[in-house]
């Protein structure tokens, strides 16, 4: 579908995709008479169990939220006291795209660590942890990483395992922003548990993967997140009709639909990236999940923008982001490549 100026939003974000028919079917299925509210319904329980099973985390707690931003805020704010510190990468969504929400709700400082496309070196952690104890410094408590990253990269299994082990050795909890966790799992062809290492809390994206709305929070180590249900309620994310979020998760976890939709998005991104490279364009990051970052000269970008809405993460750079989704068609990719080719 195009935006008001007629430009296509096919690659603007995975949020521009329509809801998957299975999500709509799931809503219809649970739309049957009264059910307990605020998560007391059987569908919420079943969806929580399905998520725990998928992530091999039988002792986890599961909460649901309407958006990925809310899920991140709930997870992070429950982990810290106002004098503590949240660490994240320099491109983290929690840092640059949530309007300061995690800081406002938690009261804690958010500190950026240098990264390679959102992949943080474990060596960055010890110097921060060494500042602990001094009353003049915010006290590092949790590090947030994103899988797949904001720049479309994936943490490989050994890499995330090493990072999480290093964080834990430095007394830091680990939060995984999994707005696109399914894309990472599908790309790596590993189990969901392997894709998050031994992280303490993970947000599981639903909206970007084809749901109408809904992201989950899987708390693998609930003892470190006391009060998380109160944070969820305080910020208005305890849905009274939670069954409609939960039902979509059930539908997506069934038969691995969540991984099939993600794998399709990844395949489309690879095709798009390969096609751009074949046109002589330079990719700014390797295509590892469902996003493509390409360098477009300003005149090409401006001309392209008349036909397609695409995000420029940093207006001072020439990098443009294309995102593929469960609904991206081969013909969408071909059309975008033809448009680009005509402009070069
Ligand atoms: C990595 C990442 N985390 C979290 C979010 C937040 O999702 P929402 O827009 O549903 O709040 C996004 C959305 O773009 C994202 O890209």
Describe this structure in words.
The strands form two sheets. Strands 1-7-6-5-4-2-3 form a seven-stranded mixed sheet, sandwiched between helices. Strands 8-9-10 form a three-stranded antiparallel sheet. The longest helix has 22 residues, at 257-278. Strand 4, helix 7 and strand 5 form a beta-alpha-beta unit. The radius of gyration is 20 Å and the shape is globular. Helix 12 packs parallel to helix 14. It is built from 14 helices and ten strands. The protein is of the alpha/beta class and 344 residues long. The chain has two domains: 21-255, Type I PLP-dependent aspartate aminotransferase-like (Major domain) (Aspartate Aminotransferase, domain 2), CATH 3.40.640.10; 257-343, Alpha-Beta Complex (Aspartate Aminotransferase, domain 1). Helices cover 40% and strands 15% of the residues. Pyridoxal-5'-phosphate (PLP) binds at residues 67-69, 72, 93, 146, 150, 177, 179, 207. Residues 67-69, 72, 93, 146, 150, 177, 179, 207 line the site of pyridoxal-5'-phosphate (PLP).
